[in-house]
Backbone:
């Protein structure tokens, strides 16, 4: 049976990478993540990069059989561009909307006011899955 973990976060977002190359960071993050997956018997994952999209994109390009990722989208973004980039990137499994964060309810208020409607429409029109939190 193939095991796919539908949501993991960066394994080292708080590590100090200052002065290190992006390539070294990508390779180390990839090796650490693969070691975790192999130890647990997980075949592939969907990464929630938490602001480290370049790491997730690198992993998805280098090891497409093991990694996909779900970058964030927000009404404040250039929604059409973000959705189009997601649609055109084979490493992207969909987009992620953080409606439940922050916990003060401000995003829920924006949802109720219709601010998220363009995000929903753009994803629907482009056929891009949207994960709602």
Residues:
């Amino acid at each position: 049976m193939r095991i796919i973990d539908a949501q993991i976060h960066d394994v080292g977002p708080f590590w100090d990478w200052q002065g290190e190359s992006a390539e070294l960071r990508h390779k180390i993050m990839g090796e650490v993540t693969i070691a975790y997956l192999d130890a647990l018997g997980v075949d592939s994952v969907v990464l929630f990069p938490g602001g480290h999209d370049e790491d997730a994109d690198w992993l998805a390009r280098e090891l497409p059989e093991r990694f996909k990722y779900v970058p964030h989208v927000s009404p404040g973004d250039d929604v059409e561009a973000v959705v189009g980039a997601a649609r055109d990137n084979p490493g992207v499994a969909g987009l992620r909307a953080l409606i439940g964060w922050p916990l003060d309810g401000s995003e829920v208020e924006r949802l109720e006011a219709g601010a998220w409607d363009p995000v929903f429409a753009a994803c629907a029109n482009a056929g891009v899955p949207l994960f709602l939190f």
The chain has a mean pLDDT of 90. The CA atoms of residues 94 and 129 lie 5 Å apart. The longest strand covers residues 4-9.
